[in-house]
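Reproducibility note. Readers wishing to regenerate the assembly model reported in the main text can use the exact inputs given here. Chain order matters: entities are listed in the order in which they were concatenated for prediction.
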Amino acid sequence: MSQSSQQQKVVVTVLKCLKCSYTIERPFKEGDFIPKIDGTCPNDGAPLYIWAIYAKPLVEKK
Amino acid sequence: MIDLLAYAQSASQINSAYYLLFLIFYMLITILFFMPGVQQKMYIYFISRDIENGLAKIENLSQSAKKKTIDLLKKSGAKNPEELADKFAEWFVIDPVSIEPTDIINRMKLLIRTSEDKIRQTIMLSLPNLDPVTRSKIEVSAEILNALNTIYKIVRHYLLLGKKLQSYYILLQLQSIVPMLVRMAESYEKAQDVFIKGIPVGDSLGPLVASRFLMNIKEKWSPSREMVAGETEFEGRKLIVLKAEGPMATVGTPGEAVENIINKLEGKVVRIITVDAAAKLEGEQTGSIAEGVGVAMGDPGPEKIAIERVAAKYNIPIDAIVVKMSMEEAITEMPKEVYEASEKVVEMIKQIIRERTKPGDTVILVGVGNTSGVAQ
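Running the prediction on these inputs yields the following structure tokens for the assembly.
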């Protein structure tokens, strides 16, 4: 992997349902913060919390 | 035949002329080489070129930070963004007198708070209806602009001084640190974008860990400026959790908060646990966790000493948990490895409470660091 692709990162927001542990990941958007409630869980209708916001490499290491 | 002889003669004359020129050239070079000062001037020239390249990069980064600060001020509705940006760039705080160290912490605290207040007042005078999150973004931008402008001016000062005095040694020392300063400046400039967007940074590790405990606590209060505290029960222990008030980009005043809470409880606290990001050494892994003793805090002094003093007063042991990362990672987007470490740190804290305290005890947990993008 070249150095430039190693350095390329994408910021993601992870949403989590604290009732059933359902998680979903989407690109970060301005206004996101931990632990903001952002929508409801498709499984049980419980609130979905922004659980994490972090940067990960664009091409993840296998 | 005659033509051939004439040609050979002229060729021999040309060769002799070339040889003579070659000889003169090398004699000149040799003489110049051994003349006092010529070598040094050559070194000074090449070193100066190298430093100038680094300085140009720092200048570009400083200009870019200024532009971003002006854009942010304009977007927030400021009428005099250029004037404000110039004020932030040239802002300074004079260090307290250290040759007489008595009471230096209180003097330092006063100067730090006065500086923070003054910058805040300057922003609020121009933008009276500004929300706290945007205000904190402008404050961080102002700090970054100030840092980059200071680096630029100091490098330029020593470069010009070295050239003026023709001092090889001044320039040599400057040349050796300029690559590190360029790297630092690049990190600062990158950090500005991250803070403006409100993304958690690597240093938000401590507040993130604290928010995991605080998010289920309904009643929270502010024990000191820009701090949030909440009380919960963990396996029979009273756990008081503290962090800076998010999601603003602030570190709060954790020392003062711990001091106030312990004094209010008349010292009836059995343990203080501090969690923070720590600078890794080259070769160490980002996200590696280490446990030790003492206040995990990268503070200039006043906040850290407040915890040490109150802990010493009531003989309360202090635990420290740190997660390693580079300086750049600490001030830019939180790396995935640091987020993963935060989940492990939450479990470590629970384990420490189970092993080192008894039911009925009171424990204080402090999540230290900048709480950008992390509320409670």
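We highlight two features of this model. The first strand of chain A starts at residue 9 and ends at 17. The CA atoms of residues 7 and 57 of chain A lie 7 Å apart.
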